[in-house]
Design a protein that fits this description.
This protein has 366 residues and is of the alpha+beta class. The protein has two domains: 238 residues, Alpha-Beta Complex (Cathepsin B, Chain A); 106 residues, no CATH class. Helices cover 12% and strands 27% of the residues. It has four helices and 24 strands. The protein is globular. The two termini are 42 Å apart.
């Protein structure tokens, strides 16, 4: 499949060979920092010129992993939300800083609520709805309680040193690049001459001895023999990557939580206002919940224990459980978690059934 390269954020670049390097590690890669991969999976934009949306979303997804110090957090956000709803672009191209600003100002729903359907919508348009195969009304009914936001968007000074400092200290960076050139014998993409920006990607690291950026693309895996995993190398300073770098800032996402602590004051679980539950231990369901001493107990009006969280962060629910279940509409006599607007985002009902609008996670340090 031929992939599209299309952006509306235009920067005319003059290719230069002068680079000042920062005093940072010679090699850095968010796919292998402290032995863990902090990036989310490589996606496929297809014929649609939506690289701008994929660059913004991939940057934000990774930032949540880094912010929570949790490489496996791996939220999956909706590029289709940006293409169909943001007015920052569509399949004919768009703006990656505009996309980040939209996520900051309005929020973006998750991928399961609004799946990507524009793989076969070319950048020349003529698709089901003009320059997209989706309309904003195609979102799931609960999209407005499934929004993720960032706190700010930062434009980074256009130098190799500034980008490296930001990547190292904050996280991956959404950038534009000139797409004129080819891979050299070492598998490094090298551009020739000047030109216009045509493609948005994500810088996740660098290698000083090789003189290149490590970049995440949105053309799936194996789009070129030099990119079996969907990542590729781009030479410092000759493809314009340093011209339009933008990062996502997180300072306070999903902080409204109901914490469960053990007798030592250690947090062993929390229920969040996005409908997520995080456990230090594991979940057991569908049986009698005989709570150990010191547990946080949820009982119904008959005095029966229907759920508990023990001192190790294990959750037992007497009934069944479901995640990403849409709207949680509990009957009376339920243990309810609501967000700041008063919307119920999770509950455990009279029979010990657990409903989550978000997801269940296990983490050693909730």
């Amino acid at each position: 499949m031929v992939r599209s390269k299309a952006v509306i954020t235009i920067c005319i670049v003059a290719i230069t060979g002068s680079i000042t390097l920062a005093q940072l590690p010679e090699h850095f890669d968010w796919r292998n920092e402290n032995g863990e991969n902090w990036m989310t999976s490589v996606k496929e934009q297809g014929l649609c010129g939506s690289c701008w949306a994929f660059a913004a979303v991939g940057t934000v997804e990774a930032q949540f992993n880094i912010f929570f110090d949790w490489a496996e957090y791996d939220i999956k956000l909706s590029e289709e939300d940006l293409v169909a709803c943001s007015y920052r672009g569509d399949c004919s191209g768009g703006s990656h800083p505009g996309a980040l600003e939209y996520i900051r100002d309005f929020g973006i729903t998750d991928e399961s609520c609004f799946p990507y359907v524009d793989t076969l919508c070319p950048k020349e348009c003529g698709c089901a709805h003009g320059c997209s195969n989706a309309e904003c009304s195609d979102k799931c009914a609960q999209w407005n309680i499934r929004l993720w936001k960032i706190n700010n968007v930062e434009q980074i000074s256009g130098t190799v040193e500034a980008i490296k400092n930001y990547v190292y200290n904050v996280g991956p960076v959404a950038v534009l690049m000139v797409w004129s050139g080819d891979f050299d014998p070492d598998g490094i993409w090298r551009c020739s001459g000047g030109g216009y920006y045509l493609h948005a990607i994500i810088v996740v690291g660098w290698d000083d001895p090789g003189g290149y950026w490590i970049c995440k693309n949105s053309w799936g895996k194996g789009w070129d023999p030099w990119s079996p995993d969907g990542y590729f190398k781009v030479a410092f300073g000759i493809c314009g990557i340093e011209g339009c770098p933008f990062g996502a800032i997180l300072t306070n996402p999903d902080v409204d939580k109901f914490y469960v602590q053990n007798a030592s004051g250690e947090t062993v679980a929390w229920f969040g206002d996005l409908g997520n539950i995080v456990l230090k231990g594991t979940l057991v369901s569908g049986g009698t919940c005989a709570a150990p001493s010191g547990s946080f107990i949820i009982a119904n009006s008959a005095g029966e224990t229907v759920a508990y969280v023990d001192n190790q962060g294990n959750l037992c629910v007497q009934g069944s459980w479901s995640e990403q279940c849409g709207t949680c509409s509990p009957a009376t006599d339920a243990f309810i978690i609501q967000d700041s607007s008063g919307t119920t985002v999770s509950y455990i009902d009279f029979d010990g059934n657990l409903c989550l609008t978000g997801k269940l996670y296990q983490h050693p340090n909730p």
